[in-house]
Amino acid sequence: QGAGAPAQPGPSGGGTARAAAEALSALTNLGYAHSEAASAVAEAQAHDTGADTSALIRAALKSLAPKG
Fold first, then answer.
1. Dmax of the chain from CA atoms?
2. What pLDDT sits at residue 47?
3. Where are the domains of the chain?
4. Given this model, what pLDDT does residue 68 score?
5. Does 38 have pLDDT greater than 60?
6. H helices within 1-68, ranges in order?
7. Is the pLDDT of residue 60 over 80?
8. Of 47, 36, 35, 38, which is closest to residue 20 (Cα–Cα)?
């Protein structure tokens, strides 16, 4: 475990930040604007603070879906 050891997310929530970043990347790769994808991911995180990447993507896609 020297200086070259990879950083591991700790119990401070590093995993949820990574999940949010991955979900944001997935949504922008699908063609959503960064700003609307970021808002949808933030909303999804607010509803489920421990959600993994796939759960955040599903929730964000639901909020981005056309209403009506």
1. 55
2. 94
3. 14-64
4. 75
5. yes
6. 14-29, 34-47, 53-64
7. yes
8. 38
Name the token pair of 61.
């896609």
- Closest among 51, 54, 55, 25 to 38, alpha carbons compared: 25
Q: Determine contact, residues 59/26, Cβ cutoff 8 Å.
A: no
The sign one gets for the Cα dihedral 58, 49, 36, 17 is negative
Helix axes 34-47, 53-64, angle to 10 degrees: 120
Average pLDDT over residues 16-35: 97
In CATH, what class is 14-64? mainly alpha
Which tokens is 39 given? 């808002």
Output the six-digit token pair for 36.
Answer: 């609307």
pLDDT of residue 67: 82
